[in-house]
Amino acid sequence: MFDLEEELKKLPDKPGVYIMHDKWDNIIYIGKAKVLKNRVRQYFQSSRNKSAKIVQMVSHIQYFEYIITDSELEALVLECNLIKEHRPKYNTMLKDDKSYPFIKITVGEEYPRVLFARKLKHGAGKYFGPYTSAGAVKDTIELLCKLYKVRTCNRNLPKDEGKDRPCLNYHIGQCDAPCQGYISAVEYQHRIDEVISFLNGNYSAIMDKLTAQMEEASEKMEFEEAAKYRDLLVSVRQIAQKQKITADDVNDRDVIACASDGQDAVVQVFFIRQGKLLGRDHFHMQVAEGDTRSDIISEFMKQYYGGTPFIPNIIMIQEEIQDSDTISEWLGSRKNRKVKLVTPKKGDKEKMVELAYKNAQLVLTQDKEKIKREENRTTGAMREIAGLLGLGTIKRAEAYDISNTNGVESVGSMVVFEDGKPKKNDYRKFKIRTVKGPDDYKSMREVLTRRFTRGMREREGLEESHGFSRYPDLIMMDGGRGQVNIALSVLEELGINIPVCGMVKDDTHSTRGLYYNNVEIPIDKHSEGFKLITRIQDEAHRFAITYHRSLRDKGQVSSVLDSIEGIGPVRRKALMKHFQDIGKIREASVDELAAVEGITENIAQNIYNFFH
């Protein structure tokens, strides 16, 4: 039993992170403190100055825990990581999960490549960006590879030189095949230097060169060649106009401003690189009653800069924030260079912040209804389901389904919805191992037993984590009493307490209601909660069917080709890689079959005879 007074006395006089739980063990708030003893006690002391958000949160705290750190900076980093992982209800949360692309040149390689990158790793290459458009980055990379004949393969050169034939790019004149030693490292490096010059904004030399080549080809009446240079010239001009690549200098800065109506907030960010406005973006924040603009900007910075690879030298913010020194120190440690937080009070810089604020206000006004509709459809629908079942809050729900054809290739699916949205990275699929024949109940028992046994082992540190250690707030079974009882019996055997409901269908296989605590609960078919239940049920079914079909199709291909004399796993794989489809193998001639690597004329004839 958690004794609040006793636990408050035990709080250490050290920096750290505190974690608040409700009566359902949900994490509802995560914060950091310079002195844990002082900060945590403040929540439970009577004070008229507490915000409505804090008063409401404290009323739901059942117990708390804490983690001590060596410094306030370490506490801030830990707080950021924990908030990102658990997304507590009462923390101000960044709703968007955006990342910005870079162009990376692998300068450490003897024959460098030009790559698309989402993460900036110090010492791993030379980076240009960030860009606001992934499409523009891909267009730029494609253009550079065409212009300078930069290799696009991932061969380990010069180690793999001459080990394989040159690729298609060499044959169409878009690569000079360093993989064959046809171009020296010195000459290739000269091209990379020109690429770097281009990415630094020196477009004129390239445009002059392309213009001269276009005119020369035109004079020789090589109009197709001239058109090629013309198109490349157009691409360079577009890139020069649309994209301004950044260098890491003193003119790099972000401008941050926030607009809030007390329930929702929008943070606007202007990206200024080399003194020029590169682009802008806005982010929606989930705020609680009583959150000030300063609070929102502070939380935004911790979550946003904890996930973006590029940190500018200067960040201009609309209002001064608490812990600005700690946040500045943290950002500097991530950048390996000093980062200044500035709140402009006058002049052009103050006008730039004001402009960002006006843009944030405009987005908040325009998107208000859209945000509300999306919230009703997702988190609002989750709250509705929780209310129907008499549960506190449901953040994470897992749904399960079984699919097979007369008991053959039985599979189970697990889909996850968080805050009313599918979280596809957490989906899992199970190939049924112990059940023979079409027995959905036994198959479901196997799936749930494997899922939660694996979760228990991961929690105890007996297995490497693959996402099973995180349990749902609600398990939703595709069916009624029978499926629910299977789930409850598995959980009881494993000593796990998680609410379980069934998604019941009517005679036309349409969702009818929820089965919970031995009672079928009807639902308004026009409600967002009902629509979400239908989406969850359909998604579990779709995921199971897709996996079942892939296994079934693979089994059919294997069984057909394995029936042919001379075809084993290696040749079967070669045939499928070459033709991609069993139908094309069936229609192929003997000569076409013999063209596949590893297929002799005799075996090709066997394959042809088998299908004809």
Task: Write a brief structural summary.
By secondary structure, this protein is of the alpha+beta class.
Number of strands: 20
- Please give the largest β-sheet: 8 strands, mixed
Q: pLDDT average, as an integer?
A: 83
Beta-strand percentage? 15-25%
The CATH superfamily of the largest domain is: UvrC, RNAse H endonuclease domain
Taken together, the total number of domains comes to 5
Q: Helix count, per DSSP? A: 20
Determine the structural class based on helices, strands and strand pairing. Answer: alpha+beta
Question: Architecture of the largest domain, CATH level 2?
Answer: 2-Layer Sandwich
CATH topology of the largest domain: Nucleotidyltransferase, domain 5
Classified by CATH, the class of the largest domain is: Alpha Beta
The geometry reads as: globular
- Which consecutive residue ranges, at least 5 long each, have pLDDT under 50? 242-249
The radius of gyration is 30 Å
* Terminal-residue CA separation: 76 Å
Helix amount, in percent? 40-55%
